[in-house]
Automatic annotation (TrEMBL):
Pfam families: YbjN. Residues 1-20 form the signal peptide. The keyword Signal applies. Keywords: Signal. The lineage of its organism: Bacteria, Thermotogati, Deinococcota, Deinococci, Deinococcales. This is YbjN domain-containing protein.
């Protein structure tokens, strides 16, 4: 009986793998399937599909690839990091609010409180409040996850802006 148990387990495992395409756990296909390529072009395409205006910034060999994304009232800087051979590990969205005319009243307590409650990161830089969020591309991602990340970021940007003095 013990000899049958390993054979049965092998048989079940191989049957499960052969049926993986029919709702099982088939290996994802990058690009055409659910998992998307970790490239700036693929990210830009998904953001356009979500209805945002996306412009690829001119390539500069000394800088990481970047995009400008127009989303409602916001113009976001979107840049990639950990890029090798056209594939990138992360994408970061960022926007800022200029308070350079009122720099002495920048509220670090507001920033610290924000960072304790939200996944986005707020900070003060050169007289501006800045709000960033990073999404991991390494290993692949889905279009739905990238769109949800951007929607969440924009929601946080609206809440952060409403909290500014």
């Amino acid at each position: 009986m013990n000899k049958l148990l390993p054979f049965a387990a092998t048989l079940l495992l191989s049957a499960g793998l052969s049926n993986a395409g029919a709702g099982g756990a088939a290996a994802p296909v990058t690009g055409g399937g659910q998992v998307q390529a970790a490239t700036p072009a693929a990210v830009a395409a998904v953001l356009r599909e979500a209805g945002y205006q996306v412009t690829a910034n001119p390539a500069n060999p000394d800088e990481a690839p970047s995009l400008t994304v127009k989303a409602g009232d916001y113009e976001l800087d979107v840049w990639f990091s950990g890029c090798k051979a056209g594939s990138c590990d992360r994408v970061t969205a960022s926007t800022s609010w200029d308070y350079s005319d009122d720099e002495e009243n920048l509220d670090l307590d507001l920033v610290n409180e924000w960072n304790g409650d939200y996944f986005t990161q707020a900070y003060v830089y050169e007289g501006s409040y800045v709000l960033d969020s990073t999404f991991t591309l390494k290993g692949g991602y889905t279009r739905a996850a990238l769109k949800a990340w951007m929607a969440d970021y924009l929601s946080d940007a609206g809440e952060f802006e409403a909290a500014l003095p």
